[in-house]
Write a structure and sequence with these properties.
The protein has helices at about 45-55, 80-85, 100, 110-120, 125-135, 145, 155-170, 185-205, 215-220, 240-245, 250-255, 295-300, and strands at about 5-15, 20-30, 35-40, 60-70, 75, 90-95, 175-180, 205-210, 225-230, 230-235, 305, 310. By secondary structure, the chain is of the alpha/beta class. The protein has an eight-stranded mixed β-sheet, sandwiched between helices. It has a four-stranded antiparallel β-sheet with strand order 2-1-4-5, with helices on one face. The radius of gyration is 21 Å and the shape is globular. The relative contact order is 0.14.
Amino acid sequence: MSLIEVDNLSVVFKRKEKESKAVNGVSLKLDPQSTLGIIGESGSGKSVMLRTILGLTRSPNTRIGGSIRFEGKELTAMNEMEYASVRGKEISMIFQDPMTALDPLFTVGYQLCETLMRHQRLSKMEAYRKAEELLEKVGIPSPRSRLGQYPHQMSGGMRQRVMIAIAVACQPSLLLADEPTTALDVTVQAQVLALIKNLQKDSGMGIVFVSHDIGVVASISDEIAVMYAGRVVERGSVRQVLHHPNHPYTKSLIEANVTLGMKGRLKAIQGQPPRPDRLPSGCPFASRCTIAGEECLGMMPGVTRMESGHEVACWAAGEGRSGAHSKVV
């Protein structure tokens, strides 16, 4: 059984007379002890999807459709009290910016102990003892003295490690990592990635890892999903997606990526992603695609299954189809 199965998930934000489709029909699966990497430009729906899995996008102005099944339980059918018992205990999240995710008014120790006391029913003394062990586990020196510090007294790398410690405090089955290495230098980034891998090896948790950095995603993931305009446009193993991409958007992302020893200018993706409140009726990438044809402009492409486990949502996917299109100017 899959650890989590997302089926035709949609998230629509309503504001006055406008509706913005942030997530539009996403279907994904993740097995226990495996890592799914998600890449795509800003605004493609990656973070909104993670927050929806965690139940953080619920509001009177949000319409959520589809299914999210976690260990056989339907998350979308849970009330807020039921969700609160899962959030932080069975499913946890590392947020993008630890400076804003951590509360500046409370010490690191208080914020760690709050999670432990709520979900593991530990006493205050037991929680502080456990919190010290967690800080040591994530590589923070002098963990006892760090418990009394506030977030602003720590470096960016230290704050990110604190966020990881909070996220894994209750040994969750699923860890959602939203740009956990953003704004970190290369050395600290490597340390954080190694830490996440070791924690996964020790606990067997599944990880959904979101990042703009294709190299980082490739180093940590078993499978990769590429998102664009709220949809998954390509999914498969790291080898399939990065070495044999079939969607024009995936190819463009790879070509726009900085690689060691490269010369000349980066090949930028022309144009802008469509606005979520003005999505086209056809393929959302058609206006930026160099091989788009008339059918791309008129109809949303379905999913084409290439080799084992490799799926592409593109009219040109499949042997001999890419040459059948005339370029749309």
